[in-house]
């Protein structure tokens, strides 16, 4: 993200759109004019090119002052910003569906953080843009924090980056009905043949288990080039979906129940070697060093360049209602 290096915020007026607040510790915040709350969808449609331009320039944009208050209004804004919304496939945990392409945030324990990652970066065609809207802000915590993927890449040890560039990264999953999304939820069907066809078309190795479960393996690029700017980005979920990111007691429980080779999800080097706890700790530390955040306020809208910008969800005190849409599918290239 293009944040000023000075400690004080910088304000800029964006003609006919609002005032842009650039603060080094926060995502760019666009304060929309007061009258916009009356018709946020029309305003989003009119200023879509400007909003998308700001996202390309800064990596993300938080829009404040739209007064988003219900799911129908949010859906209308999402569709004005991105007419073609993606169907969520291969989710690691369930989501609620409000309307086609409009989802709840991932169902995940409120007291457990979701560390930095790029949404669905393990899929064959991940979204290039995320749209988020807050209807209910948590009493404490719960920010969708952000980190610039190019800056993270530059801060990681060159030898580690080189290995991941050469090998890629491997995601292994064991779908069951107890932890995370079941295979029927993840693939949107209970037809085994359809799941197999999807896996073959998306470079996913699969094996059905005697108990009816499913195990998959998929190798993906760890570093890709941004489709517009060409900048190299650390684009993956290596740390997020690794066993060492889990709370120790959760990791121990899962290993005890499922065994070390049948965890609901885990990541490895692309060649199959295990990734050590030290590597995962290093990646998460670099993310933390490059994190910016702004607490949600009810009515907020956020646009996130999913290739350039990683995001997380911090622990919170419920309730928290954030709607999500995925759009602009990409073909990531190294």
UniProtKB/TrEMBL annotation:
Cofactor (UniProt): Fe(2+)
UniProt record, GO biological process: antibiotic biosynthetic process
Pfam families in UniProt: TauD (PF02668)
Keywords assigned: Antibiotic biosynthesis, Iron, Oxidoreductase
Gene Ontology terms for molecular function: oxidoreductase activity
Cited InterPro entries: AlphaKG_dependent_hydroxylases (IPR050411), TauD-like_sf (IPR042098), TauD/TfdA-like (IPR003819)
Domain TauD/TfdA-like: 41-324
Protein name, UniProt field: Protein AmbD
